Amino acid sequence: MTLSDITIAVDSMGGDHGPSVTIPAALRVLAKHNTLRLILVGDSEVLEQELRAHQSTVDRSRLTIHHTSQRVEMDESPASALRGKKDSSMRVAINLVKDSTADACVSAGNTGALMATARFVLKTLPGIDRPAIISVFPTIIAGKSMHMLDLGANVDSSGEHLFQFAVMGSVLVSALENIPEPKVYVLNIGAEDIKGNDQVKQAAQLISQSNAINYAGYIEGDDIYKGEADLIVCDGFVGNVALKTTEGVAILFIKLLKRAFYQNIYTKLVGLLAKPIMKMLVKWIDPDRYNGASLIGLQGIVIKSHGGANIAAFANAIEQAIAQAEKNIPQLISAKVEHLLKASSKINPEE
Amino acid sequence: MTLSDITIAVDSMGGDHGPSVTIPAALRVLAKHNTLRLILVGDSEVLEQELRAHQSTVDRSRLTIHHTSQRVEMDESPASALRGKKDSSMRVAINLVKDSTADACVSAGNTGALMATARFVLKTLPGIDRPAIISVFPTIIAGKSMHMLDLGANVDSSGEHLFQFAVMGSVLVSALENIPEPKVYVLNIGAEDIKGNDQVKQAAQLISQSNAINYAGYIEGDDIYKGEADLIVCDGFVGNVALKTTEGVAILFIKLLKRAFYQNIYTKLVGLLAKPIMKMLVKWIDPDRYNGASLIGLQGIVIKSHGGANIAAFANAIEQAIAQAEKNIPQLISAKVEHLLKASSKINPEE
Fold first, then answer.
1. What are residue B7's DSSP bridge partners?
2. Does pLDDT of B191 surpass 70?
3. In terms of CA atoms, which chain B residue is nearest residue A187?
4. Residue B157, H or E segment
5. Which of these, A102, A198, A203, A321, could form a disulfide with A159 (CB 3.0-4.6 Å)?
6. CB contact under 8 A, A242 and B237
7. pLDDT of res. A255
8. How far is Cα B237 from Cα A143, in angstroms, rounded to an integer?
């Protein structure tokens, strides 16, 4: 798909900040890509009001408002969102992907509700049992990023599920990062074959036997950010703990750094001198740049932004949606899975 | 137990550096506590040679060498260590705890072998199904530390196992940190009751129903280091990933910080000025100070030092052993479990 054909549906009411972040972010992306079309989904009155505040930059010819009367709350249960919010901005944005009005949708809304609704509306791809959450992370090697899944869509993933995650992740990384054979690792608690739980061992066996995946072995938590892996596969409980622990340690580090610089007149002075250096450090890690996780394995593209995303971060989530629509990620995954299923039926014709 | 009665067995051959770290560390601790007795376990010739290098500081009256002919390699399998290394420094140090010659033992040797050997020789306490690995961590709040278990002894822990970890951990934290009712959290991937896997939900239910534990709720990965929790309970696979991810992020941060300071003449100059501040930062986190995890739930005290520990770090692991011996941690756990079992048999007399 070329950029000129792409339409993205934006859940404009989602996230901690709602339209005050989603609208300026949408306008920023619209201005950057001069053939892109956006559908802003939400309360039309509120959205029009927010748009008026940015009047000078609005190109209305490529921007549609799709009115909805409801909003999924950030702490609402998936069941309540699914049953009671059929005209929510989240649900309707996903519906627009389902009926091919949009090529992808983006939401900063509550993760549980988004997952449940996306799965219910879009369904998983043939041959895929469960969707997963995949995201991209920085590494120690400058310019080298790493993808990891699942980050919390599934708990208690079996070896077969982890294998499917590896297939889907390989397709995505290969297409988005232009890596012909991404190096795939399985997250474990030891590099030796005897370590780990049964699911991880079974996954390693399935992945290493498949020609579709460039399996590189087990990886431990302390090697995640070393830049060797293109893709790391794990259960959603484990991946979510790893992701959030990373956030926790980063916050700990930044707070301790600030405390160290605020000790006395000398350290404060050095802190002042070090400010541009610290800014550079933050720019390297740049959480905004890495905003935008995907719900992978569905018949459609759904991008999940961090709930607390600022304008730059939410704009990056929309960019993620564009990149995945350009590459037709769900179709690529579907083709790969179909190929694998055919290959395995040749080997085991009875199955 | 008072300090004057305490004897610690030191696996002097273990770790990446062996006697060149374990012996000076042992001598440092011996000099600090003037009634402590140490048994240095290992190749007597090698140990004597290392001792001669530190001749001036050696008090031989409180120091014994226990000769052993074998050494467990750092990459040796638990099965090989258990079956083939019956006269290893690791095995004999644990034997000395078993026959009450020593009150605790310390090893920087291979974790898998140490766990398997300790469990085989010492056995679990009555009422405890599985030993766990517990360690202490710094938090954002100055002077406040946090304990976490299991860090890798068990994969696929059931809700009942997690409950036992909570009981053991509460007893240890209460005794070592002088906190009458430590705040216990269960690591999960969301703060809501509906989230998480079945094991975690069952654990939360068991823990919240028990008077023996001050249950505070679920905690997510990004809140681990915020200082609210005294104890965090999780499965060993998950805990190990959290622990190692923490190490990985810390290394990432330090490397990026160095890179930021090494960019040009200005940043290098600021880096020079910032050096004492960075040292202070590292001192706060101080991985040496937090060295020394415990294998908890056994009929004896076994402290696991990091394999790469330096002298200061290994000395801290010995200090951990002393602290636990002083408090009789295994006896305290045993008493608590016995009390719980009696209480539950009163409620369910048929069981």
1. B37
2. no
3. B241
4. none
5. A203
6. no
7. 84
8. 31
**Alpha carbons B274 and A310: distance in angstroms, whole number:** 31
Q: Is the Cβ pair B260, A248 closer than 8 Å?
A: no
What is the maximal distance between C-alpha atoms in chain B? 77
E-assigned strand segments in chain A = 7-11, 37-42, 63-67, 104-107, 132-138, 145-149, 183-187, 214-219, 231-233, 293-296, 301-304
Residue of chain A with shortest Cα separation from B248? A222
Q: Is the peptide bond before B150 cis (omega within 30 degrees of 0)?
A: yes
C-alpha distances in Å from residue B325, one per residue of A255, A288, B300: 35, 49, 9
Q: Number of C-alpha atoms within 13 angstroms, CB side, residue B336?
A: 23
Q: Which residues on neighbouring strands pair with residue A104, listed in sequence order?
A: A8, A301
- A-chain residues near B74 (CB < 8 A): none
Tell me what the pLDDT averaged over chain B comes to: 90
Token pair for A180 = 């012909």
Contact A277 B270 (CB under 8 A): yes
Size of chain B in residues? 351
Contacts of A254 (CB under 8 A, 6+ apart): none
The DSSP H or E segment spanning A144 is none
Rg, Å, chain B Cα set: 21
Q: Give residue A118's Cα distance to chain centre.
A: 14
Cα distance between residue B58 and residue B46, in whole Å: 16
Q: How far apart are CA A1 and CA A330, in angstroms?
A: 12
- Percentage, residues of chain B above pLDDT 70: 95
Closest-CA distance of chain A to residue B328, Å: 31
Coil, helix or strand at residue A68: coil
Q: Cβ–Cβ of A270/B260 closer than 8 Å?
A: no
- 3-state helix, strand, coil split of chain B in percent (to 5) is 50, 15, 30
Check if the beta carbon of residue A137 is closer than 8 Å to that of residue A147.
Answer: yes
**CA-CA distance, A19 to A86, in Å (whole number)?**
20
Nearest to B281 among A140, A190, A257 (CB): A257
- Measured distance CA(A114)–CA(A53) in Å, rounded: 29
ipTM over 0.95: no
Q: What is the C-alpha end-to-end distance of chain A, expressed in Å?
A: 35
CA distance A349 to chain B (A): 35
Identify which of B192, B243, B267 has the shortest CB distance to residue A221.
B243
Rounded to whole angstroms, the Cα distance separating A203 from A100 reads 34
Q: Tell me the pLDDT tens digit for each residue of B257-293.
A: 888 888 888 888 888 888 888 887 777 777 777 888 9
Ranges assigned E (strand) in B188-263? 214-219, 231-233
b/e burial code for range B119-135 (CB count within 10 A of at least 16 → b):
bebbeebeebebbbbbb
| Pair B89, B52: CB distance under 8 Å | no
- Best A157, A252, A283 member to test B by mutation, with max B CBs in 10 Å, is A252
CA B305 – CA B311 distance, rounded (Å):
11
Q: How many interchain CB pairs under 8 A, A with B?
A: 169
With beta carbons under 8 A apart, name residues in chain B contacting A274.
270, 274
Q: CA dihedral in degrees (A241, A245, A246, A249; nearest 10)? A: 180
Mutation target to probe the A interface, by most A beta carbons within 10 A, among B110, B133, B146, B189 is B189
**Side-chain-side CA neighbours of residue B217 (13 Å):** 12
With contact defined as beta carbons under 8 Å apart, do A44 and A13 qualify?
no
